[in-house]
UniProtKB/TrEMBL annotation, chain A:
Key words of the record: ATP-binding, Magnesium, Membrane, Metal-binding, Nucleotide-binding, Translocase, Transmembrane, Transmembrane helix
Transmembrane feature ranges: 494-513, 570-592, 604-623, 635-661, 667-693
Organism whose genome encodes this protein: Orchesella cincta
Designated name of the protein: Phospholipid-transporting ATPase
Catalyzed reactions: ATP + H2O + phospholipidSide 1 = ADP + phosphate + phospholipidSide 2
Limits of the P-type ATPase C-terminal domain: 458-701
Cofactor(s), by name: Mg(2+)
Record's subcellular location: Membrane
Active site: D51
Positions of ATP binding: D51, K52, T53, E135, F176, K199, R235, T315, G316, D317, R406, K412, N435, D436
UniProtKB/TrEMBL annotation, chain B:
Ion transport among keywords: no
Keywords: Membrane, Transmembrane, Transmembrane helix
Protein's cellular compartments: Membrane
Transmembrane intervals: 38-65, 326-348
InterPro entries noted in UniProt: CDC50/LEM3_fam
Annotated GO CC locations: endoplasmic reticulum; Golgi apparatus; plasma membrane
This protein's name: Cell cycle control protein 50A
Major subcellular site: membrane
Family of this protein: Belongs to the CDC50/LEM3 family.
Amino acid sequence: LTVTLEVVRFIQALFINWDLDMYHPETDTFATARTSNLNEELGQVRYIFSDKTGTLTRNIMEFRGCSVSGAIYHPDDLIYGQNELLINLEKGGDSARDIRHFLILLSVCHTIIPEYPSEDDGGGETIYHASSPDEIALVSGARSLGYAFEKRTPTWVEIKALGRTDRYELLNTLEFTSTRKRMSVVVRSPNGNIKVYCKGADSVIFERLKRDRATEVMRRRTDTHLHQFSTSGLRTLCCAMREISEEEYNEWQVIYKKASTELHEREKRVEEAAELIEKDLHLLGATAIEDKLQEKVPETIDALLKAGISIWVLTGDKQETAINIGYSCRLLNPTMELLTINKDSKDETWDCIVEYISKSDATATRSKQHMAVVIDGATLKYALHPDVSEDFLALCCRCKAVIVCRASPMQKAEIVELVTEQTGDITLAIGDGANDVAMIQKAHVGIGISGQEGLQAALASDYAIAQFRFLTKLLFVHGAWNYDRMTKLIFYSFYKNICLYIIELWFAIYSGWSGQIIFERWTIGFYNMFFTCAQPIAIGVCERHYSAETRLKYPILYKLNQDSFNLKSFFLWIANSLMHSICLFWLSFFLYGSGVVWSHGKEGGYLVLGNFIYTYVVVVVSLKSGLETRTWTFFSHVSIWGSILLWFVFLILYSYAYVYFPVGQEMLGIAGLVFSSPVFWVGLVVVPTATLLPDFVWKAMEVPEFETLNVKMRSFDEEKGKLRKQRRSHKKGSEDLHNLGVLQAIDRVRNFFAAKEIGNNKQQAGAMTEADMRNSSGDTFNPEDLLNLQVNEDQDEQDDESSLGREENLNQMGTALVVRSIHVRKEEVLYLDGLDEIEIG
Amino acid sequence: MEVSTSGGTTTQTPENKESKKPSNSAFKQQRLTAWQPILTAGTVLPTFFVIGILFIPVGIGLWFFSENVREITIPYTHCISIEDKETNRTCADLVRNNSGALCQCEVHFTLDTQFTGRVYMYYALTNFYQNHRRYVKSRDDNQLWGQIDSDPNSDCTPFALDQGKKKKIYPCGAIANSMFSDEISLYHQSLDGLKPVSLIRTGIAWDSDKKFKFQNPKEYGQGAKMWDSYTKPKAWRKELWELDPENQDNNGVQNEDLIVWMRTAALPNFRKLYRIVNSSAEYFRAGLPMGNYSLKINYTYEVESFHGTKSIVLSTTSLLGGKNPFLGISYIVVGTICLVLGVLFLFIHINYGKSTWEMTNVDPRTPWIAN
């Protein structure tokens, strides 16, 4: 078993490496499985801890638009080959002035250091270097609009404004800090005026605006624009300016100088000094920068959420950024309730958490998906305190998403550890940088993004992939497949061994409990080595539970399989193998009868019976693997028929081994004896058939045509016409349904999808929809009633649904019902096509 | 399993770059064409019906084969000794009290029908654990292959050395020691009086055994040198060279009775081929005719001590060997179950499932819409 497992895991790891879908051509990297022991855990992930920068985002900022004096401009919107902003700039007027100042602000108010390409490189554009990629984006944005930042010295900056070089004297730079959330420069413009340019978070800028009606109007407009920007996932900054007189400046400068030379609490003093000048600002507008997400991140996150995975974003970024990214990658949506926890002490944090918990209890389970926890690093320190952590975890587990900002690498690791230990579920951490290494190592499965931020994360990880989006393929396809394969492989290995060895026990009844084996020693030894080693490997390598496409399309399938390796299925398999061994032994026993199984009247001896049974065991066990295999590939055929053939060949060879070597004297001539017996061949047909018949019936019960699925679908249709009729058949259906185990339920989904894959059900679904449409206009039909009858357990969602449009609802129900009827037992409801919301009970 | 090695070299040559890309083979991409055996009504129902329809006639055929086999079992464990007819002592008693004693007895039986074809005579023992682990092991294959230079295999103990005579035992081991020793002859009571039925002693063992496993030592007859250090098994009444008084070639360890006995049975109730009725002899060319028969038994083999019984089985065979109705019955039962299941599933299908036609064609007349 161990050897088989290792071989299979190794091949599965190779499959991951070989996967073209996870090959990233731009960076020429393919997915790398650095360990093969976690392949199946990829299929059970319940929590994903993700780094943000470099993982979700590319960390490349792009200037995406701005709002200046109440109008939105996009850098790509061109009118007559010229940007609208510039056209308005030429038009003159108030807004033109604002636009000019806005552009000057962008090109002046920053801390960028330019690098000039040497002549050898053929010149080209100036390259900007800055601590924050946002600034680069803004300055580059300004440059594309004609206001290019050219040179910086400690005392002045030079910009090329629409071809004219202007030099601004840099009087003071009030730097960005996280508490101020803004930065300002005080400059003397070429015409001698002193101006304060200030950019920062909307909240801080709005506080410091001029108090007059015009500004208020502007503020309102800009605010709506800001909202627009941030809902589309853009990072926003507000820009404002103020013109100050020479006197005021001189006055302020004294204060500022004094503050900046202060020894005691200098930072605070400087801040206070800055407050004095950053007031009565004139709002210029706002900028919108996109922190470009990695390819397909929103889709991936969406899919992961649908698969019932909780996603925790752990980032070192500030809260606003993190939330913004949360929105832009669809981790959060505007209907979600954000539970923000920003407290300064342990007790406050605890109180806050407890309050949120009781609140979420009050709003019932349904709102689970509408909550997200946002917590920052400082508060996290308290939340991770042993007293609080339990409640904190309880709260987080109620939420679909958790965003942790300003978290240190250690804190990231702590959170991962907390969840890993407390929930007992499989956790996955994904990150790209060195700061994620601790977290990657703590989680069950660590995934490194190999690429931008160096290789530390990739080297510390279990799997390295090039892009976040490959996670879906890795989890939904490889993970789920591997889990399914491993589950089957392990169960099957138990099964085949029990099946053979328990027969010895049955034989012991007839051998005076003496421990005599009915098979020859070496044939037993070779059982696992040759005759039944290919079948589990074929399952482990080639089994595909749903196609990759289906799995990627319906992420919920990921969730469904996660509990297939449980005690119940284990005992079912054990019972199955016991039953098989009983059938195999006693059927052969009676078949053998008096031992005279040849027309020439001789009798055979114990090994003839033993090899009868052994052959039947090999055949049954091989066919059983076929019965369990959902996708018969070339390898399945080789393993099944090849193993049977191998046994026959082996038996023939071994029967004559004693003639040449001193081994297997008992087996001498056995092949001749066995194969010359017509009873053996007669039994070769009937014994496996009889043994596997119950298994086949069991499988057949799962066939859609024979089980409740269709009863339900029919009753669903009939409902529209005759309620009474429907009730009767439904009653039948629900009784049947009640008898169905979870295992069957899972398998039935498989049948459904399998059928769907081959296109069988296409028309069926179509027919349903059509029928729905027809009848939805009828008065007698009431979706609530139907749902009540269909699935009592689904009360919750049903309320939700009825609030949606009925017609639309009906269409969805066609598909949903199919799956729903399958999952009532698990209280799981699936909505496939067309339904976005998926809730798992 | 290596992470990208060095970016520098790969970007320079396009071939190199190409080589890192995983190849697009069906196996590597896990896209091997696969047959998905999806069970549907269309496959399950025919399967059941086909199995049912095929198995039942086959089963009936097999059953007839078995029914055509004539078989009679004549128990003789407690047959009355001829010498002690007055006291009604059974041979079992005599043999138990005096092991090694010879008790003669006679058993009468009648064949109601003619046994046509070759008739085989078996002895059947019950409760005899020839499949006991230590019993099965207790033999020395080298010895049986005529190699007498070395000591008997230790597996043979306690039947390896004769303590009393201080000699090694040949053939050693529990199997050989416990060899069935009754001698049975069959008589037909015809109008002309008691007529012995000619029985063949050879052709009862497997050729492969005779050829490759049993070979007499060069000299094993009376007075041969080997008997200086060897002796016969303790329980044996006859010497090794006396096993077949009629045929010298069928003696020693190559004696077929011994070879048959040495092939240990699978189950504690077993039968072993003893003789074949000589169909070339007069009167018995077509098998055993109807009528009265008697068995004359030289009763020496003791089975009472382990609560066993002995019987003689006379049987013809079919193509499938001896009488065994189970074969046919198993086919009939499996076939019937399949038919019943098929009907049951068909019933479910018609009543609760929709036919493919209904599923694919929806028009206003479709009952569940028209309603």
